[in-house]
TrEMBL record:
One of its GO terms (molecular function) is pyrimidine-nucleoside phosphorylase activity. This is Pyrimidine-nucleoside phosphorylase. The lineage of its organism: Bacteria, Bacillati, Bacillota, Bacilli, Lactobacillales. It comes from Streptococcus oriscaviae. SMART domains: PYNP_C. It comes from the Bacteria. Homodimer. Residues 338-411 form the Pyrimidine nucleoside phosphorylase C-terminal domain. Keywords: Glycosyltransferase, Transferase.
Amino acid sequence: MRTVDLIQKKRDGHELSTDEIKWLINGYVDGTVPDYQMSAFAMAVYFKGMSTREISDLTMAMVATGEQIDLSAIAGIKVDKHSTGGVGDKVTLILVPLVASFGVPVAKMSGRGLGHTGGTLDKLESIKGFQIEVSQEDFISQVQQAGLAVIGQSNNLVKADKLLYALRDVTATVDTIPLIASSVMSKKIAAGADAILLDVTVGEGAFMKNVEDARLLAQTMVDLGKAVGRKTVAVLTDMSQPVGTSIGNRLEILEALDILQGKGREDVTEFICELAQIMLGLAQVEKSLDEVRQHLQDGSALKKFEEMVLAQGGDLEDLYRPVQVEHQLPVYAEKSGYITALPAMEFGLFAMKLGAGRAVKTDELDYETGLVFHKKVGAAVVQGEQIATIYSNENISENMLTNFQKNVRIEDRVVKSKEIIEIVS
């Protein structure tokens, strides 16, 4: 085979065979297929797409390029969860211990944030001493004993994805369904869980900007999971505004703790309880929403989170301390009315400029900085009322404050938001 022939075949809209896809991926990993040719192939896929069979073959070829974790030593149905990314997304921090509090083992590998999207690992590392680099043996042992673990992805897992994602990131081929689906599902399949919940975010702050594309991505990933014997359900969730009230690593930990104590906003609490109910159902544990919520109110989920923090070297005293920044700047409503929009991407980028996110992978984070909204979409506001607080270690310029305020859309109409848009199974 020749790489140029496979590029041309895909460029002209034809399907590649299973053997051709496997040859191409293996060649890319071993270095015989250079970056420039794989870039051309990714662009051909971007414009011509792939069939369901091709995407399945691509996914499994990628899985085969690294180790596959065997979780059979852990009793019960092991569940995992993945989000396609968003702003203020602290869902994993609450959902994992909530599900584990019902005796369902959760073995999760998470990622870091980049650009306007936040990463679960970064949030956990804002806790003093918390270790995300854990050996496979210790990972399995922790899930056996504590019932949950959230760690960084092994360097030996799906080697093709690491190479291909870095290439897509610099060649404008990230947002194409075949490559997103194969990237996500190759990692989830290799990670070894029996059942997978996919949180497919939709809207201004997500990769998928509209419901139609999100639905297609969700169905593609669900079909991939089912094809290899993994129970898989996807949930389309709104990412037009940030999740919850906070953006920023330390601030999101503190909001997660509030929710884990039954003190969080009603909308995000209800949303996470609905996701937990779905995950429990995948593990054949049927619970009502009231029963799920009870584990937030009675401290069961919080106890599990603290157990995970301790198991991974975290300091419980540090866990509960407030943020430590030089400046806390209040933001006030410029007029009266109702908040109709808080554009997730704009505020994600704003938080990134404060140091809460990375523009490039080598950027260092300031774990303490970020934003807290005191009002969300649908809320009534009065001119001069405080609607947010900016936490920063640098002085906030008038221009930055103006940009912040102009993105808080206030009108004379009420807009209602809904976290779960659709369930795909």
